[in-house]
Amino acid sequence: MKKENKDINNIYQLDGKVPLGKAIPFGLQHVLAMFVANIAPIIIVAGACGLDTARTASLIQTAMIIAGIGSMVQLYSVWKIGARLPIVMGISFTFVSVLCFIGPTYGYDAIIGAVIVGGIIEGILGLFAKYWVKLISPIVSASVVTAIGFSLLSVGATSFGGGSGTTDFGSVQNLLLGTITLVCCILFNIFAKGYWKQLSVLFGLVVGYIIAICMGMVDFSVVATAGIISFPQILPVIPEFNIGAIISVLVIFLVSATETIGDTSAVAATGLNREVSTEELSGSIAADGFISALSGVLGCLPITSFSQNVGLVSMTKVVNRFAIFTGCAIMVLAGFFPMFGALLATLPDAVLGGCTLMMFGNIVISGLQMIAKCGFSQRNITIVALSLSIGLGFTQVPEIFAIFPQMVQNVFAENCVAVVFLVSIIMNLALPKNMEIK
């Protein structure tokens, strides 16, 4: 019994040995926490580009494989690529708005060309991060992490209501299902003992899913029509290297790199109780870029670190790389076996929303803790206050960007993380080091 307890306590250690049977639930929890968010950008961009159902389904499968591979590289690294931290990767929402502009304007092949070029450039920047990452001071990272948390609150609320664009958004059924799921997560966290307490999100997802089936809110038709096995294709789309598309996407890759810096810093701070190292940041950014380029080669969209999984690490303190690796293996398998992926895709948005509200809130708290750790000097207060007020305030009124070129609007008008990053960087460089009242 003592050995069993020792083994399971290793889930709180980066490299502790955890039995496979006990590791899988924690890995599965990570998959379920990000699965819908991983495929949603594909569905949105494919719709904007007019791709047919078969092509969209193929992209979803590729997205799961790429997410699994990217997460594995982050966990265990390949050469200098990867942070060797409990970071889960997925298709990035950050690129959605700009890709929905590029696709209809230049075509999906221009998207793929831009993703490949932008990913390679970000990867190279990541390898040389030690020469420029100092521009991203701790207070800048703390501001970005806080902004990421705030930006995700509306995502959680949208899922809670039933998902964006659904005809029954905010219906009694969706709100009831989301509430039941949330309450189950909270009650399980209160009454469960030992390490079981850390599976509250998984418990909420399972209970919510079963209730959704009983309520007739799960459509299994997509599972019945799914194939048995399929493999991704290399260059299913011949890339077009359009300079306008490349510049637009490259700017977003810089924003994505900042989000990755924030997520990596948050994982180290909240999961390992220490500051992130320059090598970890470099590897994390490099993985973000090069795996995105690989995704482009397979005809898919860019990936990035997933903040909801950072929130899960923050909430559960489960940082074991092997446990999370089992989730990566599940994602890859889901990509090779369409029926498995189709089954996971039937998870209602309201169930996911019920579980993610607490997780996203934890990211906000993590950002605030990082700010507190930096200290409340007049300089830090000014940077955080101005970057958050402009970033969160201006993006809630996107019309304020109307005088700027369309490219600028695509990057900043509805992306508070990008605005917070830009303002905090400028303030960090411009403000004097000592602003204390004498």
Descriptive account of the structure:
It is globular, with a radius of gyration of 21 Å. The longest helix is centred in the N-terminal third of the chain and has 30 residues, at 20-49. It is an all-alpha fold. The protein has 18 helices and two strands. The model has no long low-confidence stretch (mean pLDDT 85). The protein has helices spanning 2-9, 20-49, 53-76, 96-106, 108-127, 138-160, 172-191, 200-214, 221-224, 243-271, 278-297, 307-316, 321-336, 338-345, 349-374, 378-395, 406-412, 416-430; strands at 89-91, 303-305. Helix 13 (321-336) packs across helix 14 and helix 16 (378-395) packs antiparallel against helix 18. It has a two-stranded antiparallel ribbon with strand order 1-2. It has one domain (2-430).
Task: Give the arrangement of secondary structure elements.
Elements: H1 2-9, H2 20-49, H3 53-76, E1 89-91, H4 96-106, H5 108-127, H6 138-160, H7 172-191, H8 200-214, H9 221-224, H10 243-271, H11 278-297, E2 303-305, H12 307-316, H13 321-336, H14 338-345, H15 349-374, H16 378-395, H17 406-412, H18 416-430
Antiparallel strand pairs: 1-2
Helix pairs in contact: 2-3, 2-4, 2-13, 3-11, 3-13, 4-5, 4-10, 5-10, 5-11, 6-10, 6-15, 6-16, 6-18, 7-8, 7-15, 8-15, 10-11, 10-12, 12-15, 13-14, 16-18
